[in-house]
Amino acid sequence: MNDLGKLSINQLTTREQWSLEQAVDGYARAGVGAMAVWWEKLREVGAGRGAKIVRDAGMRVTGYCVAGQMTAKAGAAWRAQIDENKRMIDEAVALGSTCVVAIGGGLDDGSKDITCARQRTLEGLAELVPYARQARMRIALEPLHPMVCATRSVLCTLQQANDWCDGLAADDIMGIALDTYNVWWDPKLEQEIERAAGRIVAYHVSDWLADTKDLRFDRGMPGDGVIDFKRLRQWVERTGYTGHHEVEILSSRWWAEDPVHVVDVVKQRYASVM
Ligand code: ZN
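Above: inputs. Below: predicted complex with zinc ion.
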């Protein structure tokens, strides 16, 4: 049985029901003291005001999502992506977030050059390192499931995230966000988690439904799918990770539910399954 102290909820879990203010209030009422913030929800109320709402509620922020995505080939477009990432870093600082979460980005429009996309993202990250370091904001690389490689993230495996961290040689500022939904299938998972020791700055939790119906918006509530959370958690904690367990459920099914009920189920599953 887990106490609530380490539970965090990514606000995407109640994306369709609650604004930032409502989510902060709803989670706090349920006794959940930590959350991850989604950029569109923050900017909806204005970054300054949004950050104040979160801080005034005493809410811990376990991640600001989602940065990265610097795969543009053309110079000006790529530069704009870098600037957007710097803005995300500034907003993460205002929120007092543990990290800004970065995904790989999909292929540039019309491009079939995945090697170039990966190279561009890596170059972008290298540019961001000094900026993030000055802001004292950790960048957490989140590999996404390969099924969304074309559109969302050319960073697909934990091994790749570890390799990128090695290549960037900036372990003071680069870290990894491990998301169970994205990596559970990986035959090298245990060894790559071990390799990521000291780098894991966020642990995202949702389940893989055996008969999943959507590439992005059919994540399962922990316990409803096929992931062995107890084993994964053991591997993650063996690396020395003591941070929050952030439930992140992008799901059309759960978005149709009463958000108070959703948060309640998250708490139950956190206590019994995770
Ligand atoms: Zn995630």
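Residues 20 and 41 are 6 Å apart (CA to CA).
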